[in-house]
Write a structure and sequence with these properties.
By secondary structure, the protein is mostly helical. 64% of the residues lie in helices and 0% in strands. It is elongated.
């Protein structure tokens, strides 16, 4: 009974303090009442909830008590009672309404509170952040992006907690900010440039998935839209080049390094198609990767050759002249002069396709590489030199690969008939699935072999007309289109997965002693975060810890 009476008196006092402050003409002269409200934050649950409303309400009138008031309010944000925490979180934006200097600090605190495990609490954090984003989008975004900073300078326990905060901030930006960018990013040109700069500053330490998220967002901005000048499109390619780490020595023993190069070149293709330069990628390929090509795994080789084939379509003449000797060199490795039992048809398809498109842009470069006699009137034609042996060697290789491809087409066609018979006779789902995979492999082989024949046929001439358009569709691209069409017809939705961020498991916040797990808000964070550097990285092998794969 005594406790209840004390609780009742505390509540009455709080209402009295609030009434006195409301009535005061010069509230700054009623300091004792505000001090009483701050002290009440150490009382009962009901007193804490009331104090959480009143501390922020009268905060602007007592600048000399601001540090004490905010500190006490932050303790309420970490209280054991959910109702107290939620009330305190809802009051955080009020600390910035008339005192905007606090906005960066409060956004930083709310960013840390995104780890809240309770739905009501997390929703309160989201709403508070959105209020501040609408109040000052530039300052709020700048503060939020500081949470994407490095955790490498923290001890293991803190680093784990800060990594969790970082992931939650990224999810918030992805789910709450990016979808309503048109509403938030105003004035549009200024804010699109500002958020672009924020993204660029924080790309040294992102995973491959996070990098794609940011690049997808950037290319959705009007700044880089369909009508953007080439120099802006080039800016996106330069961002990707930075992620590909093209200024470093290529490490052939690091699988992540080649995977990063391939992934980044593929990501750059739409922008290269729009007129941006691919010179840095091709220069790195010619000087760093091709010389150690034989040391790559077979899977890495094929993946690289596929990407080179796709990018060759958009190569500029100077890039084509740079890369063409490497392509011819590889072609001669794959296109043997004598028939052999095993042949990598898709790799040959890639190289022939690349050869055509690169040669189409710089046809006379093939004179000294393959013995062709193409006249452009330039000194680089080298018409006075005899390259007959090169031509003979190259065309013999073409003839050999054509014979092998024709034999394989015959074999695969016969095999398809056998697969159809086996499918009709199959009884179990396992048997049907196995046969289905065999048919798919055979179909891919047929596409590849037919493409090889289409690509080799024009090359027997002394002065061939190189293919420079898309009349020959790469076999795996054709297969992809077929698969996409089938999925569309089936009407199947893409399932949620951890990789696309659809998981719903919430992180529960501890309420005991010790560590950042329990004391969620780091009161010094807003002072320290702005100076942190990056060190973890997208792909392993760059002095950072995360692996691409």
């Amino acid at each position: 009974m005594a406790d209840a009476a004390d609780d009742s008196r505390d509540i009455e006092k709080l209402y009295e303090y609030c009434e006195k402050l409301d009535e005061a003409q010069d509230k700054s002269q009623s300091r004792e009442y505000y001090e009483g409200i701050i002290a009440a934050a150490n009382g009962s649950v009901k007193a804490k909830q009331l104090a959480a409303q009143m501390i922020s309400k009268f905060f602007k009138y007592f600048p000399d008590l601001s540090e004490q008031a905010l500190d006490q309010h932050l303790f309420l944000c970490e209280d054991e009672e959910l109702g107290v925490r939620v009330q305190a979180i809802r009051g955080l934006p009020l600390f910035c309404k008339d005192t905007p200097d606090n906005l960066s600090k409060i956004v930083d605190i709310l960013g840390q509170l995104l780890v809240a495990g309770d739905n009501v609490e997390r929703d309160a954090v989201h709403k508070a952040l959105m209020t501040l984003l609408r109040q000052d989008i530039k300052t709020s975004l700048t503060s939020l992006f500081k949470h994407i900073g490095s955790t490498d300078d923290r001890n293991a326990e803190d680093a784990s907690a800060w990594e969790t905060i970082r992931e939650k901030v990224l999810c918030f930006i992805r789910d709450k900010v990016f979808p309503i960018k048109a509403e938030l990013l105003k004035p549009k040109d200024e804010m699109e440039r500002h958020i672009t700069n924020l993204v660029k500053q924080n790309l040294n330490d992102v995973t491959a998935v996070e990098f794609k998220l940011f690049m997808d967002f950037l290319k959705s901005l009007s700044l880089f839209g369909a009508n953007a000048p080439v120099e802006r499109v080039q800016e996106l390619v330069e961002i990707i080049e930075g992620q590909a780490d093209l200024d470093s020595q290529f490490n052939v023993s690091d699988g992540d390094h080649i995977a990063r190069y391939i992934s980044c070149l593929q990501m750059a293709l739409p922008f290269i198609e729009r007129g941006a330069s691919s010179s840095k990628f091709f220069n790195y390929l010619s000087k760093q990767i091709i010389p150690v090509f034989d040391k790559l795994s077979e899977e890495q080789k094929l993946s690289l050759l596929k990407t080179v084939a796709e990018s060759s379509l958009y190569a500029k003449p100077q890039d084509s002249r740079l890369l063409l000797p490497s392509v011819v060199q590889l072609l001669k490795k794959y296109m043997v002069r004598r028939k052999i039992n095993e042949m990598n048809f898709m790799s040959i398809e890639c190289l022939l396709y690349s050869f055509h498109h690169l040669s189409h842009k710089t046809p006379n470069a093939t004179n000294s590489l393959c013995g062709y006699k193409i006249v452009t009137g330039q000194p680089s034609d080298r018409l006075g030199e005899d390259f007959t042996d090169l031509y003979k060697d190259f065309t013999e290789r073409l003839t050999t690969i054509e014979e092998i491809a024709k034999a394989m087409i015959k074999k695969l066609t016969q095999g398809m008939a056998e697969h159809n018979k086996a499918m009709a006779a199959s009884k179990t789902e396992e048997e049907k699935e196995s046969i289905k995979k065999q048919k798919q492999n055979a179909t891919a082989g047929l596409r590849s072999c037919n493409n090889i024949l289409a690509l080799t046929q024009p090359l027997h001439s002394k002065a061939p007309s190189f293919i420079g358009d898309q009349k020959v569709a790469l076999s795996w691209k054709d297969a992809t289109k077929t698969a996409v069409t089938s999925s569309a017809v089936a009407g199947q939705k893409r399932p949620a997965s951890s990789s696309n961020g659809s998981g719903t498991n919430a992180i529960k916040r501890g309420r005991g002693v010790g560590g950042l797990q329990n004391q969620v808000i780091n009161r010094a964070a807003f002072e320290a975060l702005s100076g942190t550097g990056r060190g973890r990285g997208v792909w392993r092998g760059r002095g950072r810890g995360r692996s691409y794969r």
